[in-house]
Amino acid sequence: MRTRPLTDLAARDLRPLLDEEAGHWSRELFWDFEDVTSAVLGGIERRSLAGRVIHDGAQPVAYGYYMMDSARAVVGSLFASAGARGRGLEEGLLDSMLGEAQGLAGSERVECQTLFSTASGADFRFARAGFTGRRRHYLVRDLGEPLPSAPSTFRLRPFRREDVAAAAAIIHRSHVRSLDAALNLTYSSPATCRAFVETLVLRSGCGRFDSSASLVADGGSGCLGVILASRLSRANGHVCQVSVAPEAQGRGLGAQLVLGALGAMAEGGLRSASLSVTVENHRAYDLYMRLGFRLKKEFAAHAWVRPPARIEIPA
């Protein structure tokens, strides 16, 4: 076994392992990984993607990478081929990458969501490296099952591109002092929320944006809620984000938005829908259970900031 930086490889060297990874996540998460694979291959070709790969002889059998986003490093996939799992290879790669990312000049924060990880011991590695983490669940619902009824208290309409700013504002306001905002810098400011919405809507940052299942709730004083959806594959839709303005919470709008999106996905021929949620977000988690979502994979969100700063978890 030998470990090499990703920058030492040509894209063709890693292609067989990436193709295996794409097949794995398609089966496990109903996620067409083609766009991610293409982005990773592009980063390798440009020598711009940081990370490491383990070879067994001439064959790559495990790899991981991270990306820099301003002063934040974000750890991406951590994957080993089927015959190489359970041997600690991914965990060893993770230790190396975390130490490297934490030691980079200008890196003030490191984050990772371990959805795309085959490392069973990843959570311990993050904790040992000083990260704060919380459990998340990837949930899936069969769209062949009937949808429950919900009061149509609010007027919903399709999301439009001119709604980007209003959606970003609602997402930010709904996450102020939240657990998700503590662990994910995406929700930290109106500007980062706007960049997040633009990535989803304009740049297919989480599958192909689904305009038919993305909805806005209009109130008398403006936008009160938003749901953004995508297609992760030909058969599976995904709820990327659902947020309700603080003044409209507790009135059933979240359920109405999710049911509206699921109905549109079913009408569009999709067979299932997925989403991810922090387990300690009890209100959202309980709602998704009531609406028929079920656990597909448990993972975690982890974050670290350079001392003396610290991750502030809300009580």
List the helices and strands and how they pair.
Blueprint: E1 2-5, H1 11-29, H2 34-45, E2 50-56, E3 59-69, E4 72-80, H3 89-103, E5 109-113, H4 122-128, E6 132-142, E7 155-158, H5 164-175, H6 179-183, H7 190-202, E8 208-209, E9 215-219, E10 222-231, E11 236-244, H8 253-267, E12 272-278, H9 282-290, E13 294-305
Parallel strand pairs: 4-5, 11-12
Antiparallel strand pairs: 1-2, 2-3, 3-4, 5-13, 6-12, 6-13, 7-9, 8-10, 9-10, 10-11
Helix pairs in contact: 1-2, 5-7
The parts where pLDDT drops under 50 for at least 5 residues are none
- CATH C-level class of the largest domain is Alpha Beta
Largest sheet: 13 strands, mixed
In CATH, the architecture of the largest domain is: 3-Layer(aba) Sandwich
Average per-residue pLDDT, rounded, comes to 95
Query: What is the first-to-last residue Cα distance?
Result: 45 Å
Total of domains? 2
CATH topology assignment of the largest domain: Aminopeptidase
Overall body shape: globular
- Class from secondary-structure proportions: alpha+beta
Total helices: the number is 9
Cα-atom radius of gyration? 20 Å
Count of DSSP strands: 13
Strand % is 25-35%
The helix content, as a percent range, equals 25-40%
Notes on the protein architecture:
The chain is of the alpha+beta class and about 325 residues long. It folds into 2 domains: about 1-130, Aminopeptidase, CATH 3.40.630; about 140-295, 3-Layer(aba) Sandwich (Aminopeptidase). Helix content is about 35%, strand content about 30%. Strands 1, 2, 3, 4, 5, 6, 7, 8, 9, 10, 11, 12 and 13 form a 13-stranded mixed beta sheet that branches. The longest helix is centred in the first third of the chain and has 19 residues, at about 10-30. It is globular. The N and C termini lie far apart (about 45 Å).
